[in-house]
Write a structure and sequence with these properties.
There is one protein chain. The chain is built from 5 helices and no strands. By secondary structure, the protein is mostly helical. Helix 1 runs antiparallel to helix 2. The model has no long low-confidence stretch (mean pLDDT about 90).
């Protein structure tokens, strides 16, 4: 689930959620989080419902971040 932190943080920044890095760090640092914990965290965010739904359906396997773009630039 930690893989999704990048996507969540990006959405938080886009919608000016205060202290996105710090909030995610508090949730994920030094521990494994469950899908349920991540879902509860996402549901607390003040973001548009469309973004919330997108984040809730995202999985580590479906999220590749910038990997595709970075490999093409090599």
């Amino acid at each position: 689930q930690e893989v999704l932190a990048e996507a969540i943080q990006t959405v938080m920044r886009r919608y000016a959620v205060p202290e996105p890095y710090e909030k995610l760090k508090a949730l994920t640092r030094g521990q494994r989080i469950t899908a349920g914990e991540l879902e509860r965290f996402i549901n607390t965010l003040e973001i548009p419902e469309t973004e919330r739904s997108r984040l809730l359906t995202m999985t580590p396997a479906s999220y590749i971040g910038l990997a595709e773009q970075l490999t093409r630039s090599l």
